[in-house]
Design goal:
The strands form 3 sheets. Strands 2-1-5-4-3 form a 5-stranded antiparallel β-sheet, with helices on both faces. The chain is elongated and about 215 Å long. By secondary structure, it is of the alpha+beta class. The chain starts with 5 loop residues before the first helix and ends in an 8-residue tail after the last strand. It contains 15 helices and 15 strands.
């Protein structure tokens, strides 16, 4: 071994140390790198474990979800099966291409009247009676939109036809197109609708058969419906009534009265009745129309034109006043006649008798001249009384009949008015008149002759009675100055009294008059009518 000096040994030691240090540093670096790689590896393993855990959790969740889906599918199939087989519905499942039924429920078998097993395999057309074209049209509609709904007539096994509502829904089984059919029997509903429609038509015909106005309005006054009389009266359109408010079609004063009754119905829920007079007199009734919950949904109005009745009642009232006045005047006239003539004559006879009795009591003899005068006065008083009685009710009418009474009437008129020429013809027998007709025609003739004598200023009066068709007709005509019939009818009690009498016997009175050409009174009553009690 070479000898190494101390200096050299020292240098060698330094070199070795440096080398050792370098190797140590490289080793440390290498170890550090390996440590880092180890750490990375450990970290990588940890991430992979986490990922695997997550994947495992996802797989478990998917497995659970698949299990739930399978269970839900099974439950859905069970529900569908239960729904399909429900006996309360009418259900088919059939092939869209062949139209053959693959499934049917008890409800379908019961409705169509077939055994359940015999329906399977039959075509929909055979079971329902639908035509091939109708079925194919619905199938095409299902292909386009997935479903089809329609109303049809289906034939049952016994041949009876029933109205049904049908719903087709498309379905698929593998590569086949199926159709699920659900049918509802609506025959009773259709029949009920038919009856409702028939009832509405009958009600409409009934409403239109009356000349009175009938209408239905809502709670705001808008017209819902009305009959033809109301259409005409209120000038409403024939079709669209949505814009017609009944209160806007009435005169302001009439509308106010209608509105008051209408509001009363809405407030109280009871019927109201009013009468209005705006030229035309109306008797109007308002009736509430309730819902099932007893709310008022509409008001029915019935309006009757009572103008004729009102005006007749007013005329009757006026006529009654005139008749009472005429009765009082007649009583006064009879009283004056009795007082001025008959009563005075009887009083004179009384004084003459008293004077004659006193003279005879003193021993004197009866004076035949005075007795003859008293007899003459008594005969005059008797004649006056008969005249008054005949004017009131001629006994000849009861004893000998109408023709004889009319002849007597003309003779009396001729005796009293020699300046007037009277003529007559009688072409009827007494048997064609009732007792009431005799009285009526006599009074009409009496009044017409009296009017002609007092007012016509004519010199010729004729009276004729004859049969025309089924009527007995009396004519009284003069050649006087004539008059305005309407003016005299309104003011005179005589013409009104004649008309009332003739109408009481179911007859007709006509008065024709032309100024300067005379007047004709014509009274016609039915032949042999049943007598009416006065």
């Amino acid at each position: 071994m070479p000898d190494v000096s101390g200096k050299n040994r020292q240098a060698l030691s330094l070199d070795d140390e440096e080398q050792c240090t370098g190797r140590l540093e490289r080793f440390v670096k290498k170890e550090s790198c390996q440590t880092e790689e180890l750490h990375c590896a450990v970290a990588t393993c940890s991430s992979q474990s986490i990922l695997l855990a997550k994947l495992n959790a996802i797989l478990k969740e998917q497995a659970e979800q698949s299990k739930r889906q399978q269970q839900a599918l099974a439950e859905s199939e069970e529900r569908f099966k239960n729904i399909f087989l429900n006996k309360h519905g009418i259900r088919f499942l059939w092939d869209a291409e062949t139209c053959c039924i693959e499934e049917a429920n008890i409800g379908a078998a019961k409705f169509y009247g077939y055994a359940l097993d015999t329906m399977i395999g039959q075509s929909v057309q055979q079971v329902t009676g639908m035509s091939n074209s109708a079925v194919q049209d619905r199938v095409e509609e299902v292909k386009r939109s997935g479903q089809a709904s329609f109303t049809s007539l289906h034939r049952q096994a016994d041949g009876e036809m029933r109205y049904v509502e049908v719903h087709f829904v498309g379905a698929k089984d593998k590569n086949r197109r199926l159709i699920y059919s659900f049918t509802i029997d609506i025959s009773e509903r259709i029949e009920a609708e038919r009856k409702v429609h028939e009832h509405k038509n009958n009600l409409k015909a009934l409403m239109n058969s009356t000349s009175d106005c009938a209408l239905l309005i809502d709670t705001s006054g808008q017209v819902i419906t009305m009959n033809q009389a109301a259409h005409k009266e209120f000038n409403a359109p024939d079709s669209d009534l949505s814009d017609v408010n009944i209160f806007m079609t009435l005169d302001e004063r009439i509308a106010s009265a209608w509105r008051g009754a209408f509001d009363g119905v809405l407030a109280m829920g009871t019927a109201e009745h009013i009468e209005t007079d705006g030229g035309t007199c109306w008797s109007v009734s308002f009736y509430p129309v309730f819902t099932e919950s007893l709310d008022i949904r509409a008001v029915a109005i019935y309006a009757k034109d009572v103008t004729v009745e009102k005006r007749t009642a007013e005329q009757m009232k006026q006529l009654s006043k005139r008749v009472l006045s005429a009765q009082e005047s007649e009583r006064k006239r009879i009283g004056r006649e009795l007082h001025d003539s008959t009563a005075q004559t009887i009083s004179g006879i009384k004084y003459m008798l008293e004077s004659e009795v006193a003279r005879m009591e003193r021993g004197g003899e009866a004076d035949s001249t005075r007795l003859s005068k008293m007899i003459e006065l008594l005969q005059g008083a008797s004649a006056e009384l008969r005249h008054i009685i005949m004017a009131l009710r001629p006994t000849i009418l009861d004893d000998l009949g109408l023709i004889s009474a009319l002849r007597w009437l003309l003779n009396e008129a001729a005796l009293m008015h020699s300046d007037i020429s009277f003529s007559s013809t009688f072409d009827l027998s007494e048997q064609v008149f009732s007792e009431l007709q005799k009285t009526v025609l006599f009074r009409v003739a009496q009044e017409a002759l009296s009017n002609a004598i007092r007012h016509s200023q004519g010199d010729n009066v004729s009276l004729h009675i004859k049969q025309e068709a089924e009527s007995c007709v009396l004519y009284v005509q003069d050649n006087g100055k004539g008059f305005v019939v309407d003016a005299c009818t309104k003011s005179g009690v005589g013409l009104g009294s004649m008309r009332e009498r003739v109408e009481l016997a179911n007859g007709i009175l006509d008065i024709l008059s032309v100024e300067g050409e005379g007047t004709l009174v014509r009274a016609a009553v039915p032949v042999c009518v049943t007598d009416v009690v006065e």
